[in-house]
């Protein structure tokens, strides 16, 4: 649903697919959560659940 290349500082996110997976109960890793937060995915789409279980 996307990629992040730290060397080129390039990010591609398929936001509709990401939000669909999260709404179905998917839990992002801490790293993925940080990338989504930095891209303001949750803020831009008014997504309410921004607290996840990182175990």
From TrEMBL:
Tagged with keyword Ribonucleoprotein: yes
Keywords: Chloroplast, Plastid, Ribonucleoprotein, Ribosomal protein
Location of the protein in the cell: Plastid, Chloroplast
GO molecular function: structural constituent of ribosome
GO-annotated cellular components: chloroplast; mitochondrion; small ribosomal subunit
Sequence similarity: Belongs to the bacterial ribosomal protein bS16 family.
Protein name in the entry: 30S ribosomal protein S16, chloroplastic
Organism expressing this protein natively: Silene arenosa
Gene: rps16
């Amino acid at each position: 649903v996307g990629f992040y290349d730290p060397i080129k500082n390039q990010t591609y996110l398929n936001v509709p697919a990401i939000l669909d997976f999260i709404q179905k109960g998917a839990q992002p890793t801490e790293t993925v959560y940080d990338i989504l937060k930095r891209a303001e995915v949750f803020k831009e789409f008014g997504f309410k659940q921004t607290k996840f279980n990182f175990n």
